[in-house]
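User: I'm curious whether this sequence folds into something compact or stays loose and floppy. Could you predict its structure so I can see for myself?
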Amino acid sequence: MDLDSFFVSVERLKNSELMGKPILIGGSADRGVVASCSYEARDFGIHSAMPMRTAMRLCPEATVIKGDSESYSYYSNMVTDIIKEEAPLYEKSSIDEFYLDLSGMDKLFGCYKWSGELRSTIRRETGLPISFGLSVNKTVSKVATGEAKPDGQRKVITGEEKRFLAPLSIKKIPMVGNKTYHLLRSMGVERVETLQQMPIELLENLLGKAGASIWKKAQGIDNSPVIPYSERKSISLERTMHNDTIDIRYLEALIISMTEKLAFKLRKTTKLTACITVKIRYSDFNTFTKQHRISYTSSDETLINKAKELFHRLYTRRVRVRLVGVRLSHLVHGSYQINLFEDTEKQIHLNQAMDKINLRYGAQSVQRAIGLGIRHRDFNPFNGIKS
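Assistant: Here's the prediction. I'll summarize afterward.
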């Protein structure tokens, strides 16, 4: 089940005058990017993650809205609560997308009828349009949901998975991103049917392990289970000094380094945070914390700036410090690994490049220079990420 143009749909619930108009959700018109857009805007060739200035050139009459993360989280939780109440087993894969496992229900209810009734309940109680695809596995259900949009439903009968996928563009297959799409298109592969006819060894040689996965998905094969939903509430890092200190620059460097690590962990697990907390424990063991609510983000810059601000507001005594810590809470799933509401296009590309290096070679293979001086100082084997 996938909420249609979720951010746009929420904005239209808040302001009915936006109905039927091209809407762009995202950063500032000059340097930001599109987080979401209405179907009316898509008719102009606009898509998510496009530079906002490009989108405005394609559709000058579009209404640009910065976005309201709190509202999106609120409505996402409303839908989650309804699904939780009705479904025997569900997985929340992003802020607007869900997988439901209805195994064994067909004899009692009829899965397609039951799913249609659940969809009607969500639309009635939230006012949000939602689509679903029903099949024997995640991949085919996801593709079927895309084919059912907007605001529709689709069933793929058991045994018809391969035939259903065959005429579709290879871009419809999960895991086929822009780079893989252009590579396959350069080889003359346009439809899933062609992928189905290719030897699996050829795709493996071309794309590695991902090639085998893409081949299986193209055949309609996917044995991945629906993972019962449980939300991690927070992640944190603390550092206990080997020697208590009043070195402000060193303490600030620690705060920055820990926040950078946590922000990377958020993006790695496709999560966003809406609350940051900084903690100080003095040498006399008196402990103080300050926290601040923020718009949902996983941006290094946003989180580091707020962490530094909280630290300087918190450190008010000329007493040696024994421990500092940073905690990110109010976590939600998000398919956006960057803060599309505030980051500039240049900053997004920088973050993506750094993340790519760190994912390949290990966390903090590339990092801010301020963190290099603390890597070996005051090492404590008990310091680590907590949840």
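Summary: The domain at 1-131 is CATH 3.40.1170.60 (MutS, DNA mismatch repair protein, domain I). The two ends are 29 Å apart (CA to CA).
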